[in-house]
């Protein structure tokens, strides 16, 4: 039994856990709530911590939201009036642009020019931006049945800096010589900001290069690498300008 003096000394105090002194049985003064608003049960604390960690992980995996400036560039790329494109294809053109000058595994001196007009449609929900390509002009060699475009590179601020576009083409022949075999034709260009007064678009495409994917033709016995071992071959260049209505 506790001595009277000790009972009197402790009569005005009560023992609580998780308050000032943690869980060591520390005392609080009369009038202080034994349930502090800042005190969280261990289970609730762990649940809150796990929820925060999950939110942080999901944020790391989430696609970065496109900035307003980047949205304006994408909008300009997908302008309703589209783009007028002039293509030059040939060995000399390819060599001048840094290619080997051999087209479709053949050496040819023939050249051809193609003119077309395309529009880029945006597919919502993709980052970086991408979508389908529509031919706005008729062409006997090109079609957009599998037309596709995408932003191929961005800078540190996620601004689009390069674009790739794909159209399907038939065999391109000149005087019986095959310059380009039937298949996908890739249009690659840099995306620049246009500062020209009165320009139809605030964005311009520069340094356009035309490439095709060519199988390397490596024989590995039972394993057929066709469609896997391939390289992009430079076959020409193109100039793209924002089309007027």
Summed up:
Helices cover 18% and strands 40% of the residues.
List keywords for this structure.
disordered N terminus; two-stranded antiparallel ribbon; 12 strands; 245 residues; 4 helices; alpha+beta; elongated; 18% helix
Molecular structure report:
- The chain is an alpha+beta fold and 245 residues long.
- Helix content is 18%, strand content 40%.
- It has helices at 4-10, 42-61, 68-77, 91-96, and strands at 14-15, 27-28, 83-90, 111-122, 130-135, 142-154, 160-169, 172-174, 177-180, 183-193, 203-215, 230-242.
- It has an 8-stranded antiparallel barrel with strand order 3-4-5-6-7-10-11-12. The protein has a two-stranded antiparallel sheet with strand order 1-2. A two-stranded antiparallel ribbon has the order 8-9.
- A hairpin with a 7-residue loop joins strand 4 (111-122) and strand 5.
- It is elongated, with a radius of gyration of 34 Å.
- 20% of the residues are buried.
């Amino acid at each position: 039994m506790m001595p009277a003096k000790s009972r009197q000394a402790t009569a005005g105090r009560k023992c609580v856990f998780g308050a000032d002194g943690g869980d060591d049985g520390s005392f609080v003064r009369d009038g202080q709530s034994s349930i502090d608003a800042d005190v969280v049960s261990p289970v609730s604390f762990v649940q809150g911590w796990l929820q925060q960690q999950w939110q942080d992980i999901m944020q790391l995996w989430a696609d970065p939201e496109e900035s307003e400036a980047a949205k304006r560039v994408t909008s300009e790329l997908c302008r309703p009036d589209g783009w007028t494109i002039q293509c030059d294809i040939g060995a000399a053109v390819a060599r001048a642009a840094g290619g080997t000058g051999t087209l479709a595994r053949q050496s040819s001196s023939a050249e051809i020019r193609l003119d077309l007009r395309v529009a880029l449609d945006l597919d919502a929900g993709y980052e970086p931006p991408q979508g389908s390509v529509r031919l706005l002009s008729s062409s006997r060699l090109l079609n957009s049945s599998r037309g596709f475009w995408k932003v191929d590179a961005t800078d540190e601020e996620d601004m689009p800096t390069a674009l790739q576009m794909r159209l399907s083409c038939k065999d391109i022949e000149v005087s019986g010589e095959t310059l380009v075999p039937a298949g996908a034709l890739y249009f690659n260009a840099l995306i620049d900001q246009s500062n020209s007064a009165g320009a139809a678009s605030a964005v311009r495409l520069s340094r356009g290069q035309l490439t095709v994917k060519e199988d390397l033709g490596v024989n590995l016995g039972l394993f057929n690498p066709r469609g896997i071992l391939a390289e992009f071959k430079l076959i020409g260049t193109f100039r793209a300008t924002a089309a007027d209505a």
